[in-house]
Structure formats: C-alpha cells, structure tokens
Design brief:
335 residues, single chain, 0% strand, elongated
C-alpha cells in the first residue's frame, strides 16, 4: 500500500466525518445516514492501515475519529440501579453457574488434598516436629491456645474487615493470575490447603479435632466456596489461552476476562458475608451446633442462589459478560 496515495484518496471522507461529528445532534436525516456510512468506511480504512502500512500519527487520528463516531452512532449509556439488580440476580449467579465444571472439581480435589495433608501431619510425629517445637505446638493446640483465640483476640468488627480484605485479595489474585497459564492459581490453592490441613492435623493429634471443626465450619464453608469459585474461574481463564475454542484467542480471553471482573465484584460481597460470620458468629458464645447451623445455612443459600437463579439465567443465554453495547466493538466493515 502506498500510504500517501491512500491518504490523499480518503482524506476528504475523514474530514467530512470530523465535520459531522463536530455538529453534534444538529444533523438532518440524510446527514445522519451519511455519518453512519462514513463511520463504517473510516473504520475499514483504519483496519487496513493498521495491517498494511501502520503509521503512528495517522493511526492515532483515525482511532480517535472512529471512537468519536462510534459514541455518536451507538449513543452513551449510563449505569443505573437496574444494572446492579440485574447483575446480582442474573449476571453474577449465571457466571458462577456456567463455571461450575471448573470450580466444583477444584473444590473436591482441594478438600481431598487438605484432608490427606491433615491426616499425614496428624499421624506422623516427625512431620509435626518439622512444623514446630513441641512447646510451640502445645501452645497452638491447647484449650485457649492460638488456634482457639485467633478468632477472638481482636474486636469483631475490625477482625471481620481484616478477614474480608485478606480473602478478597486472595480471590482477586486467583482471578487475575489465571491468565498466567494457571500455575499461580494452583500455587495459591496449595498454600491455602496446606494451612487448612496443618490446622486439622495438629488439632487432631491433640485430640481436639471437634473443636477445630466447630471453629472452621461456620465461616469456612462459604469462604472456601468463594475461593474455589475464584480459583476455578482463574483456571478457566488460563485454559482459554491454551484452548480458545471456536473464537479467536483474543476474543475468547476478552470474554472470559470481562466475566472474571464481574465475578470478582460478586465474590467480594460473598466474602464480606463470610467475614461477618467469622468475625461475629465463629467467636461468639453460641453453642457449636448453632454456629455450624448458621454456616451451613449460609452455604446452602449461596448454592441455591447459584443453581436456581444462576441456572435459570444461564439457560436464557446470560453468560455473565457485560452488555453488548458496553463491549469494545469489532471494527465494522463497509458493504
């Protein structure tokens, strides 16, 4: 392509498009049709220049021109409370439901790994000695020790906020780092399961496993489910780079990435609820059965929310992606 000849041939169209855009809403019907036609042709020109003869200054000008034209043609859209309602009643649960084939196996395998590590630590004194000195382990596992007082050493409100922040960061890391071919997500999962298995194993070796489970279950069911959903979504995002399916790798990654951003917002709320349970219910004076019942009820409510609302939304075609009008458009091609 001879860029100078191409620019000379089409400069008048670009200038005319710029002129129509500057007039804003003061266009006749014929001029509005002309603007749409010029927008399509200019977008095609931009695509050809980018692929055949990229020129930074010309590309920047046409990119800005196409963006302004698209905003004028499609109009601007403002978010409303209805968007928030639609997200939590349809988009978010649908995204979680659609990714269930990733996070459910992730949850099963992770919990199995934690159970095996807990058994290994609890039944092998030499492994326990590698974790810490006998005096340190007794301090951690004795009645009123570190494992028990961990949930009550700080004011409930500040502890709940700290827990929520830490868990939200872990979930966000799983979602974001999944794009690095899944490896960081697997490492984060392993560290979480190692900590869980260590707590179970050490308390089991001290004959106090029931106490440990009574402290973990109330908040742990919902908290771990949220972490598994984030990890499964991160793994799915990473696998998209390997196998994008029928879409191009760029489009598939963009679609999964947008859904993952929405997932992060929804999971932040789920982890906020689990943080409230951990801060106010787990260390409370309620009987163990009552605390566990609250945790089980919260977990069941989340699963019903995902499988009923999310399943219904997914069957109607909701993917958890943003509305089509809010996505970056592919460059249109003039007829």
């Amino acid at each position: 392509m001879d860029l100078d000849v191409y620019v000379t041939a089409h400069r008048a169209e670009w200038d005319r498009l710029d002129h129509l855009l500057r007039r804003g809403g003061k266009l006749s019907g014929a001029e509005a049709d002309e603007l749409v036609s010029l927008y399509q042709r200019t977008a095609t020109h931009l695509s050809l220049i980018q692929s055949a003869a990229p020129d930074p200054m010309l590309t920047a000008r046409l990119t800005q021109l196409v963006a302004r034209a698209r905003a004028t043609v499609t109009g601007t859209r403002r978010s409303s409370w209805r968007d928030v309602t639609d997200f939590f009643t349809s988009g978010f649960p649908a995204a979680v439901y659609r990714s269930r084939h990733w996070w459910v196996p992730t949850a099963v395998l992770s919990l199995l790994l934690a159970a095996v590590m807990g058994w290994w630590i609890g039944t092998h004194p030499e492994v326990q000695s590698a974790v810490g000195a006998p005096a340190e382990l007794r301090e951690m596992t004795r009645p009123g020790g570190q494992y028990e007082t961990y949930y009550s050493n700080h004011p409930a409100a500040s502890f709940a906020a700290q827990v929520w922040t830490n868990n939200a960061q872990a979930a966000a890391m799983c979602l974001v780092l999944g794009a690095f071919l899944c490896v960081p997500v697997l490492w984060i999962l392993f560290l979480n399961m190692l900590n869980l298995g260590m707590a179970i194993g050490l308390m089991s070796s001290a004959g106090r496993l029931d106490i440990m489970l009574g402290l973990l279950i109330p908040h742990g069911l919902l908290e771990l489910t949220a972490v598994f959903v984030a990890a499964g979504t991160g793994l799915r995002l990473g696998w998209t780079l390997i196998d994008p399916g029928p879409m191009t790798r760029r489009d598939a990654l963009a679609q999964q990435g947008r859904a993952a951003v929405g997932m992060a917002i929804g999971l932040a709320l789920v982890l906020f609820l689990s943080g409230l349970i951990e801060g106010f219910v787990t260390p409370s004076g309620l009987p163990t059965w009552a605390r566990i019942a609250i945790g089980v009820a919260a977990e069941l409510a989340f699963l019903i929310y995902v499988y009923v609302l999310g399943g219904r939304a997914a069957r109607t075609g909701d993917t958890g992606d943003v509305e089509e009008a809010d996505r970056s458009a592919a460059l249109p091609t003039a007829a």
